[in-house]
UniProtKB/TrEMBL annotation:
One of its GO terms (cellular component) is cytoplasm. Belongs to the GST superfamily. Phi family. Coiled coil: none annotated. It comes from the Eukaryota. The gene is LOC105165235. This is glutathione transferase. PANTHER family: GLUTATHIONE S-TRANSFERASE F6-RELATED, GLUTATHIONE S-TRANSFERASE RHO. One of its GO terms (molecular function) is glutathione binding. The lineage of its organism: Eukaryota, Viridiplantae, Streptophyta, Embryophyta, Tracheophyta. Signal peptide: none annotated.
Amino acid sequence: MQNAKIEMSRLLEYAHREKRGKSTFFSQRTAACSCPPLDKKQLSFPLGHNYSMVMKLHGHPFSPATHRVMACLEEKGLEYEFVHIDLSTGQHKKEPFLSLNPFGQVPALEDGDLKLFESRAITQYLANIYADKGTPLVPQDPKEKAIVYVWMEVESHKFDAAAAKLSYELVTKPMLGMTTDDAVVEEHQEKLGKVLDVYESRLTGSKYLGGEAFSLADFHHLPIVSSLFGTKTKALFDARPNVSGWCAGILARPAWQKVVEKMKH
């Protein structure tokens, strides 16, 4: 319990989680997908790039950003190895992890000699380089792709700016025994409500934010939406029928449910 609190305090606002619990899945290293190994010979890669057969995801089980990448790997049906980074000992602030992410934050991905950090950059890489695997997450048509990218930016700069703060105040702080700042909650509930009003309008004429197909524009919301659905902020989503239905649909996706189940154990 104490170690978990120490780890969460190091994550600060970035370390919001959907559920708490120790997991045998997260004990150091595990092949976290039962899907058959990816045959990369079927793909075309840049010359000189060394791709291993199994990717490595370095992360932490309480990290929403880690969950985002895990869900993408599951959505694409890709085999990977999970490497647990122990935040309580400061493993993320030391070598060799700093060679993967010089900012010392999880997650980081290794695909052969390619090293990536920042969860949204990783999901874009996976969606594009493995476009023919699993669920298509980025359209091929340039105009449709541009629309998806617009809403990806909205998630990152509008939605997450308010929602992540609420998750920190309403989920992380209580778990750490800290006092929630009601004024901060009120301020960011108002901000999130305005964003969700735009979403409600958008989803009136579109099944998903990026268009008629599920994409990264929807996908990137999963960890924080899931976190907030266990708090009073869920009422903001429920008050908007289109948003509520959209949330129910993306949260029910099998790939996300696999991540949720792994967090329970």
